[in-house]
Amino acid sequence: MSLYDLFLEPLSYDFMVRALASTVVASAVCAVLSCWLVLIGWSLMGDAVSHAVLPGVVLAYVLGAPFALGAVVFGFLAVALIGVVRDTSRVKEDAAIGIVFTTLFALGLVLISVTPSQTDLNHIIFGNLLGVDTSDLIQIGVLGAITLTVLVLKRRDFTLYAFDPTHAHAIGLNPRVLGAALLGLLALTAVVALQVVGVILVVAMLIIPGATAYLLTDRFGRMLVIAPSFSVLAAVAGLYLSYHLDTASGGMIVLVQGAGFTLVYLFGPRHGIVGKRLAKRRRELARG
Questions:
Q1: Which of 100, 175, 258, 283 is 20 to 30 A from residue 251's alpha carbon, by CA?
Q2: What is the pTM for the complete model shown?
Q3: Do 25 and 149 contact (CB within 8 A), yes or no?
Q4: Crossing angle between the packed helical segments 14-40 and 249-267, to the nearest 10 degrees
Q5: Are the C-beta atoms of residues 265 and 273 closer than 8 Å to each other?
Q6: What are the pLDDT digits (tens) for 211-221?
Q7: Cβ atoms < 10 Å from Cβ of 24
Q8: Cβ(20)–Cβ(236) under 8 Å?
């Protein structure tokens, strides 16, 4: 197989060009946000919100409203319900998250089953990257640009909130507002990635890049470069592999990201398991 067949021949199809553009935007936006989710410890919250937006997206489709509006409403509803259950009962936060997001996700599945539609709403669950049309691409681009712009402009405030919310409050910032803003961006990002990998696998794109970058560097500024770079490369590789191997594109993208994380986890220069053991062995040999 020549390089043309490997890299350029797929791009002779318009659906592959749109899929590639959507993949690059979604993977980059998810990766940047994942840096804060990993630092704050919101991985499970990211899972919850990405699943809980499903009924909002379906209702938005029924009402003819923008998907993002339904997703944001149900994203905040999920967070509010989690807080109510946690604060007014003996149930702990992890259990409250599990209860709320599975219930809302089930509601979304039921709504899909009873909603007559010329569009296969199951694509919301599993993604339909190769079916992205021009209007989908525009929506992904606009929402991705909004999310990325807010993250870049407010990166210092969000970073201070992630590391020390008490200090953020002391210098005049409102941690509740910053937390709510991040949750809103999380809901928007979930919509951006829905078309690419679907509700079920969105959480992978929201966690794996940030976690991988976290194993490669101790500096947050470098995380913001490493995470999107890794995510975009893995997503493009996954898309090409899915084309040549005739497999599900969303699943293959997440598999490649998972494989990349595994390599860094094992062989990362500073925090990899193998690297740390080799360094320990060298120190023991040096001591004699």
A1: 100
A2: 0.87
A3: no
A4: 40
A5: yes
A6: 999 999 999 99
A7: 18
A8: yes
Q: Residue 150's CB: how many other CB atoms inside 10 A?
A: 16
Q: Are 186 and 52 within 8 A, CB to CB?
A: no
pLDDT per position as a tens digit, 219-278:
999 999 999 999 999 999 999 999 999 998 889 999 999 999 999 999 988 788 988 888
Q: What gap in Å lies between CA 136 and CA 263, rounded to an integer?
A: 33
What the block records as the tokens of 64 is: 């003819």
Least Cα distance to 143 among 229, 219, 209, 67 occurs for: 67
For 90, list phi and psi in degrees, rounded to 5: -85, -5
Angle between helices 43-52 and 14-40 in degrees, nearest 10: 130
Q: How far is CA 130 from CA 124, 136, 204, in A?
A: 13, 11, 19
Type of residue found at 264: V
- Cα gap 192→26, rounded to integer Å: 6
Count of CB atoms situated within 10 Å of the CB of 272: 18
Tokens of 197: 């990998």
List all residues 6 or more positions away from 274 whose beta carbon is below 8 Å from its beta carbon. Answer: 266, 267
Q: Which residues contact 96 (CB under 8 A, 6 or more apart)?
A: 82, 85, 86
Neighbouring CB atoms inside 10 A of 116's CB total 5
With both helix axes pointing from N to C terminus, report the angle between 14-40 and 134-153 in degrees, rounded to the nearest 10. Answer: 30
Please, are residues 221 and 236 in contact by the beta-carbon 8 Å criterion?
Answer: no
Calculate the CA 134 to chain-centre distance. 22
Q: CA angle 128-208-190, nearest 5°?
A: 45
